[in-house]
Structures
1.
Amino acid sequence: MPANLSPEFKRAEEDFRNATTPQEKIIALELMMATIPKHKGTEKMQADIKRRLSKLRNTEEKTAGKRGDALHVRKEGAAQVVVAGPPNAGKSALIRALTGAEAEVAPYPFTTVRPFPYMMPFEDIQIQLVDTGPVAEDRLEPYHVNLLRNADLALLVLDLAAAAPVTDFEAALRAMSRAKVEFVRDFSGEAPEYGVKPKRTLVAVNKCDQDEDDILLDEVRAALGERFELVPVSCETEMNIEDLRRMIFEGSQILRVYSKIPGRPADLDKPFVAPSGSTVLDVARLVHKEFAENLRYARIWGSERFDGQKVQRDYVVHDKDVIELHI
């Protein structure tokens, strides 16, 4: 089957050849992955791009660790979510409400001066939330670029108690656009402007406890329209904090799969975490390389099939499926 590579893919491929730094190569490979046609004829090319990306990212992480880079945040947990927003929007207070950690909180801007990771529990997994320095029209830290481009989800915080909440939020968006990121409610799979990376985004409208009758919240909804999914929250009253945890999990586009050895109960304590849309074969790769190489079929327990139904390697798994691999 011919690959039928698009002009956008060929341009990204040329950028990769001309790249002189690991970060430039990573960005080019990400663009290649985003623009390559997804069909059987490009499966080997997709695998090669993923392999090169993994190798470069691992090298970057090891290099950052050796030089003691305090601004590098290694991905941990089931997903990485970057929390960003204008000064004094309440990012750190929101992270404290979501994680229970003692994030530094103060009633003045620029409390957070460097990125710092926290772990948010969600049912039986942990999701990493990265607190970042405030973003304003004239202030975007260099580390924001890598974090925003590589995170699984962006959680942007809007301060409803600010004098001009929408103006401050839009100014932060303009600043963050310098990271070549397009913040979107959802990603359809279509390639955005060349070089711009789409990023699934939630917007936490903070300090809603100070908004009587939702007057300001309605103004924010009218101004931002359908561009983002808005979540009204309050760190003081913990309004919608639990809902936000679930939305972060869903927005991270991941799922949990539990393993089962034939003839034994399923292991429901430690799920394997995979990207949404993963197949039985993808899960087998997470379990062990040999399982993927020798896999014949699997049996599934979950909401989409009757218990123990036999499925093939290309079956798409769902969150909380129990899978029994047969080689």
Note: The longest helix spans residues 43-66.
2.
Amino acid sequence: MIRKNKLIALWMWLAICLPLSAQLPGSENSQVMTVAQYFDLVLSNHPIAQQVRLDNKIAQAAILKARGAFDPKVGWKDGGKTLSGVSYYEAQSSYLTVPTWFGIELTAGRDQITGTNVDPSQKTPDQGLYYAGISIPLGAGFWINERMAELKKAKIAQTQTQAEQVLAYNELLFRASQAYGNWIAAHQKLNLYDQMQANAELRLAGVQQQVLQGDKPEIERLEASIVVQNRNLQREQAKIELIKKTLEVSNFLWDEQGRPLVLAPELIPEDSLDEVLERWLVIEGIDVAQTVLNHPKMDYLRAKIAESQVDRKLLRDAIKPQVNFNYQRLSTEAVVPQNWMDNNNQVAGLTVQIPLLWRKERGGIQSIQAKIEQQQWNLAYTQQEWTNEITGQIQQVASLETQFELNQAIAEDYKTLLNAEQTKWSYGESSLFLVNTRENSYIDAQINRLSLGAFLWEAKAKTIKDLAWFVTAIPPQKAPLLGPQPIELDR
């Protein structure tokens, strides 16, 4: 009888203790979706990512629109006046104008104005009059003018767009990473309760045998049965939590046709949160000051300042006198004149306009100068704020990593205590109550480890987002062919 009891005790010890050091096997058809594969799907097809990519087209279209101010223009006019049967004049005009960068405008064309009542200064020979000329702003408008300013600002806006894109991608991947981290934690939590349920059921089977043999009181069978029911309840709660976290991950998954996806049951996250955390972000040696200096947020703010500086330059240019020189070379034939300096066939003029008080211009300059100073102060404040934010995040990550390691050690110690208590109980030197107490402590430690791991995951994700490194932190990988399954929606 003693030999038989020892064999039962040994069987129970093996059945209970071995699963504590091994994960339950997954489904044979399970396929892992790694973080990199997940991010590849998010960046490729998520509606926000698609919107962000369209910002490039908008910025390029704005530059194209600004360049339109330099487009050559061709025109043609035809008109005349007849009154009481008398033809006063008939006028035809065709022309080409070519704006250039420095406010200079080239013109060429043909005028034909004839009739009995035409202003002599406007009348042309019967065959028409050809001209080619140039208009040069010698004062205001030469170094910068409205069309030049608009093109410069459109190019600056493209820099702003690129910075905004990086920030938008990082924000999207940060939110997506939160969902993925919670998915890992929920998946491991269910694995833990699967393992604990299996342990509880094995323990109940062993106790029932011992009760039947009279080696254990009925009360121990009842206690073991209650533990099984509790583990079933905890497992069901963990299943619901996993379903919710899986759906949260699915929120970030879309196909190439713009249809939302739901994760196939065969897809599971990376198995070990610990391993993912270890390789995801190395914070040692980060030059925070240099990182902040090159941060897209600072690029955006510097671009705003540059945009205002273009406006200031335009306003300062407006203080200069407006001096415009116009010259046209005339010819009755559509040929290049042999003597461009012939004063007999030309139209030339010079116009000068000088504001007396410049109050409009001075007011505009003062306003834009104050705006630039505000933007510069905002840039300085944001740089300092971002430096402190990233420094604090790095320190928090370092502290959480230490806490995570300590928590792992605590969980391992609880596991050792549980194994020891089960060994004592199997030889009749302990009670099922103490075994359950040890197991509850072990479960609590493991749940705390998973919660702390998810918190550490999120802290690292936020650090990567603050550093604006999300797009480059994890090399993209193509998602598994099994893939998420599309949900058909009416469009």
Note: Residues 1-26, 478-491 have pLDDT under 50 and may be disordered.
3.
Amino acid sequence: MALGAFLSCSAPGPSANYPSRAAAIAAQMHDPSSKYVVVAVHRGDWRNWPENSIPAIESVIAMEADIVEIDIHRTKDSVLVLCHDGNVLRTTNFSRVFADQPGKSAKISDLTLAEIKQLSLKRAHGVEIDSLRMPTLREALLCTKDRICVNIDKGYDYYDEALAITEELGVTDQVLIKGKKSIETVVAHEACYPHNMMYMPVVDIQKPGGKKLFQSYFDQNVVPMAYEVCWQDNADGAFVEACRKIVGQGSKIWVNTIWASLCGGDGNDDDAAFQAKDPGEVYQQYLDLGVSLFQTDRPELLIGWLKSVGRHDLK
């Protein structure tokens, strides 16, 4: 079954020469034998800058993160912009800017790009930054090009439009899309294009739909680049068994330590690592099971610890 960027493939070792840092990161993602641990940062450095903003992206590049996770939605005039929510109420000063239009919709799909560019972005604690505006996907990819890889979350429904931008900018190989689509759907979609973004299935291994999707990869002998694995608790050993199967298949494992609800419950996430005397009390368990991709909300903590144990040295 031909899957293009969907399939894992062998890649040069970490000492090879690459045309850019992003290319070197992508090579590690494609190489199942690589011991390098890839760090993806959730919505950029949202603790210090507005989430999904250019400074939030620049900040995690400076931290030596490998992937910045961003979210996209389409404006009324068909421009892809960076925002997690379907509306701009939480992340911008919309209510103040359009105070004289009480009935105006705050949905991104109801706003033009020009209207969105009037809005100031807010930090996580609600403070506006007058100089910062919501970036378009094009603006974000111009910032990240060759410097860091990108995970476009909430992005599969916009795959065709996003791919057109990545192809124009020459960054398709640096961009990852994730989803819960069937193998057949992804294969058919990729077949429409000669060149595709990386794709990774998301499997919630303790829910019926996730179990079914996960098993379909083994039943059809399809080896993706990696699986994003989500699970709610460790009582049934489902995560340990999933890791065993994935490693045995020759694929890679992505975990989300951003929230306990995505990684087995309290004591297994970034906040637990932050509170521990040694972050390894939390993170080492994942390395022991073969995890080599993390999505984190504490990039400095995780990267620092990985460097200390020799697992984040990109040559």
Note: Residues 208-219 form the longest helix (12 residues).
4.
Amino acid sequence: MLPTRTRRRSRGDIAGHILSLGARRGAGLVMTICLFGAVFLYGAFKGEAYESFVARNGEVRDVVARGFGFGVDAITITGQRELTAQEILAVGGVSERNSLPFIDVKEIRERLKSAPLLREASVRKLYPNRLVIEVTERDAHALWQKDGEIFIISADGTPIDSMHDDRFVHLPFVVGEGANMRVAEFHRIVAAAGDLKSKIRAGVLVTHRRWNIKLTTGVDVKLPEIGAEAAIAALAQLSKEQKIIDKDLISIDMRIPGRLVARVTEEAAAARAAIKKPPGRRGPA
């Protein structure tokens, strides 16, 4: 058996050996980083080679951090409704080239808040390799067409963003100058339409005064300035009873209270004229 003192010296030697290994590994890490630095300083002078590497792999510091297990390997996104996870990450500038230690959460948050459809965002790091993103989207209430461009608008009529795809086609659609500020009024007209509601394609505000309703059948319904909800409800009832919407019509004018004027298509008018025309008389045999 070794003496206590000798055993202590042996443990000291072992500890010293471990420290020596750690020092050598630390020195190796430093040398690796220095090598990376030298390579990329040289690459910086070359220009394209360095930029190409960064484009594929990220900055040198991110490459090193990922090598130590601090990559962005898991991302949790909550709160989105219309935006996809890929769209949120693209806006935030987050990709597999990032590393957790060198991600600027404040910068990502500001980028996300600059997105038209996002009202609020928060970003948190959970070491060693998780990023948590929470977003609050703006409420899209309708689509508004002005000067040939379609905008997504909020409940108060404020434009949120231009329409880029068909994800919002289910929203009510209003057209015309000032129509965005009267979306609530158009909502009430649609609600009063009853069974006709599913056939309403758009509402066109005419001279800031009254609405024309465009139906999916191609018929234009001209509503009065006052009592628009009652007028559309009456039309819905008439359509239910007499199938008036299914006839060959161009427009239905309801601007005069208690009166409905329907304009038929040219084909339908010609067909009716032919029916009403008396047959020609034959001459004597």
Note: The mean pLDDT is 81.
